């Protein structure tokens, strides 16, 4: 599993209405910690590689059991994901790979396992986000390039690239990435992980309900 994470100082700018410049990076880290912890707890995930140039975030996620690699391409999200896939296969050439957003604080290991099981019958597959516009997960079988096209209306781009859309119900936690206060409110109703919960309790005003 490959998880990309931009430098925390640049993360989650769209949460400005509920978090100031000090809290936003801390929330971004908490989201990533809960995402990585849930992925590591998933029985279908062998390991997690975090692609980041943020040393503090890298150290924190490595302490959870992830392997971290620097964002050597420094050319944006999709280049970082392709780099992460190459890093995985440098150690395990026969591995299937999957990319997962770092901002899934409500992620449930069992739901992630269901998505990965559904993905395993396709050469490449993706899961659309809760809005049906973006992507939260993209997978590729052994020997197949990941070819990520995340960002903006990525559902359409992944479909155009030949990836199969994963159509499985009951996996809301894998679809619910958090970019805005409204997203965070929905994630809270699903039940966020302990690190996000603690961070919100110690510093963030509660987001309004949608």
Structure commentary:
This protein has 210 residues and is of the alpha/beta class. It has a single domain (2-203), classed as Spore Coat Polysaccharide Biosynthesis Protein SpsA, Chain A (Alpha-Beta Complex), CATH 3.90.550.10. Helix content is 40%, strand content 12%. The chain is built from 8 helices and 7 strands.
- Approximately how much beta-strand content do the residues carry? 5-15%
How would you describe the shape? globular
How would you classify the helix and strand content by structural class?
alpha/beta
Number of strands: 7
What is the spatial order of strands in the main beta sheet?
4-6-5-7
Spatial separation of the terminal alpha carbons: 32 Å
What's the CATH architecture name?
Answer: Alpha-Beta Complex
pLDDT averaged over residues:
93
CATH class: Alpha Beta
Percent helix? 40-55%
The name CATH uses for the topology is Spore Coat Polysaccharide Biosynthesis Protein SpsA, Chain A
Which keywords apply here?
12% strand; single chain; 210 residues; Spore Coat Polysaccharide Biosynthesis Protein SpsA, Chain A; disordered C terminus; alpha/beta
